[in-house]
């Protein structure tokens, strides 16, 4: 099965460099790696000959959904049968590609466990597993174990895989979203509505490199409201409820009969 990794990026060049190093250590190397640079021409100098770069426009609200779709289209045009999406912050464990390829089948979306790494100037890829801090709200199946998820809302786009046929069936990411939040929850809801289950794949481990974050992400408040409205219009309920509640506690947003608005 011809496998392609798709990574979208704007900045985070050190993180991308470590991801490339992780992909070079795979027990089963991907056949293709498409790096989609969103308004970031310097990515070509970072990647060199280790992957191929696809340039798309950037902008103040990064087109994450459209960029993933463009990367997938390029990979499929080159013959990919399995798409593996890997966030630029993620370093793949050495078995990630092999585990995704070994469990792949049509009409499912697979996601491996992602662990958070502590802040550091760099990481020893051989000992990443000793630093891992698995996400407490998501399953961590044993190596070789595959669990069917009970809740599609736990899907995240940091690391997931699906066959070309499944990607085509789902139609990719909805490009009405731009900037922070919503597009991955929409993708999961699309899969749920289509009867496509989400599975957790043990051994397809990825390690999320540290970067500063705001809790709640107040710098993305406008994006959360805009994308939340897009989602609510499509599916009838608002995503990112935890962030909206946190914004409300700070007096930044308020609930109306029609949803959420800036206060």
From TrEMBL:
Family annotation (Gene3D superfamilies): Spore Coat Polysaccharide Biosynthesis Protein SpsA, Chain A (3.90.550.10)
SUPFAM superfamilies (UniProt xref): Nucleotide-diphospho-sugar transferases (SSF53448)
Sequence ranges assigned to domain Galactosyltransferase C-terminal in this UniProt record: 158-200
Pathway(s) this gene product operates in, as recorded in its UniProt entry: Cell wall biogenesis; cell wall polysaccharide biosynthesis
GO molecular function: glycosyltransferase activity
UniProt KW Transferase keyword: yes
Domain of life where this protein originates: Bacteria
Swiss-Prot/TrEMBL keywords: Glycosyltransferase, Transferase
Family the entry assigns: Belongs to the glycosyltransferase 2 family.
The protein, known as: Glycosyltransferase, GT2 family
Species for this entry: Klenkia soli
